[in-house]
Amino acid sequence: MRKIVQYAVMGLTFASSPLALADWVKDAAQSVEGKTIQLRQHIHQHPELGNMEFETSKLVQKELKSYGIEVKTGFAKTGVIGILKGAKPGPVMALRADMDALPMQEKTNLSFASQVKAIYQGKESHVMHACGHDAHTAMLLGAAKVLAENKANIAGTVVFVFQPAEEGGADIDNFSQGDQIGSRKMIADGAFKQVKPEVIFGLHVIAGIPSGHLHYKSGAILNSADNLRISVNGQQVHGSMPWAGRDPIVASAQMINNLQSIISRRTDLTQGMGVVSIGHIQAGTAGNIIPEQVSMLGTIRSNNESIRENILKTIPQVVEHTAAAHEVKAQVEIAAYAPVTMNDATLTEAMTATLKQAANGNVKILANNASASEDFAYYGKLMPSLFVFLGATPAHQDMKKAAPNHSPYFLVDDATLKTGVESHVRFILDYPKVASQVQSAWRNKI
Ligand SMILES: [Zn+2]
Ligand SMILES: [Zn+2]
Fold first, then answer.
1. Cβ of 312: how many Cβ atoms within 10 Å?
2. Which residues, at least 6 apart from 202, have a Cβ–Cβ distance to it below 8 Å?
3. Nearest ligand for residue 130 CA
4. Is the pTM of this model over 0.90?
5. How far, in Å, from the CA of 278 to the mean position of ligand 2?
6. What pLDDT, on the 0 to 100 scale, is given for residue 23?
7. Comparing 152 with 19, which gets the higher pLDDT?
8. 183: CA distance to ligand 1 center in Å?
9. Ligand nearest, relative to CA of residue 132
């Protein structure tokens, strides 16, 4: 229900704005709060792994249809696109939520905690919404309901993007087939072909930020992520006579150290940061056998695209030359997961008042980006984008003690959901007023 506040001034009566407009949005977000919480708890109790979000996808489709929103499917296996035309002409604007859960066991003791098990990479695993994608899906549905009920106030068209497998797919090799899932696959399958948005917004709930608070920054908001796989082949020999073989373990140790020197000696650190981490090494059977092969897995992160490109270009040189020095053979594979997630500067600046309004002034401009990564970054390559963190921890709690995202104890405070709903709604109501400014800055940038 929309409220029209009227003021009587010296015998004249007129509908107020923009204060009255602000009030109806808060009221509308409040009116769907119960439903949003219910949806979130249901999705939380029935989590599905990446690329397996069949029931969640059905629920999303059913809800959108019941709000009178046009639904399209056939994107990235379980992805859903909703399209809502406003009553007034204006830009096409996208709002994004991810739907997938993680292969891990929930330990929250919530009444709606997950008991679900499913197959992850061929093995049975527990499943938990430990990154808040249940909340993202529910908040975007809540916003869809509000927007559908208030089409008269929308200038333009809304594209609701419900994407699968942000955390990776349960059924494919995420290393070699990463482009077959998530946002990349949504784009490749034509999610934006028929109705092409010119801007996209996303929210992510984060533990350790108070409920109802929005944290953001212009420029890099999340790091890039690339996966690294190295295999080193030597010549197996008795541990007492290494000269008679070729030792892939000593070569690998040198490689790991030399990889660190890419950051410390070969990266322009005035531009940003970079990380190369080897997190997995496997080799050998016994202490007195120098093995044939070493395999290593790692991750590469940066908040600057030129640093990222330089690291990706330099790793194979460093590994291959180190291998040559030890007379072993090395094979390097690098697979992209996501570029740097960039908040468009003009869009971020233009939406600052909107964020303040949605969070009742509880906003914070971050000094630094977060070190995690998001495949939302791929949308930001196509159009101006804004990705904002929404607090998930009750304000009275010690923020430092909150179990972080991906912890089995991770919690999302239900009270924060209405701020997420309101943010989505306000993005759509406010963006048309700044669209031409944002688009002309974007055209000058690309
Ligand atoms: Zn996550
Ligand atoms: Zn996430």
1. 17
2. 95, 96, 97, 374, 376, 379, 385, 386, 387, 388
3. 1
4. yes
5. 23
6. 78
7. 152
8. 14
9. 2
Q: Which ligand is nearest to the CA of 392?
A: 2
- Give residue-wise pLDDT tens across range 37-48: 999 999 999 999
Whole-angstrom Cα distance, residue 181 to residue 308?
22
Structure tokens at 276: 């190369």
- pLDDT at residue 103, as a whole number: 97
Taking CA atoms, 58 is separated from 40, 54, 69, 71, 205, in Å, by 15, 6, 14, 11, 23
Residue 388 makes CB contacts below 8 A (sequence gap 6+) with 201, 202, 203, 204, 214, 215, 216, 355, 423
pLDDT digits (tens, 9 = 90+) for 262-285: 999 999 999 999 999 999 999 999
The Cα 93–Cα 280 span in angstroms is 42
Span from the CA of 206 to the centroid of ligand 1 (angstroms): 10
Please give the Cα distance from 349 to 417 (Å, whole number).
24
Cα(101) to centroid(ligand 2), Å: 9
Ligand 2 mean position, distance from CA 208 (Å): 15
Dump pLDDT digits (tens) for 165-221: 999 999 999 999 999 999 999 999 999 999 999 999 999 999 999 999 999 999 999
Give 370-402 pLDDT, tens digit per residue.
999 999 999 999 999 999 999 999 999 999 999
Q: Distances in Å between the alpha carbon of 216 and those of 21, 32, 414?
A: 25, 25, 21
Q: How crowded is residue 170: how many other Cβ atoms within 10 Å of its Cβ?
A: 25
- CA of residue 192 to ligand 1 center, whole Å: 24
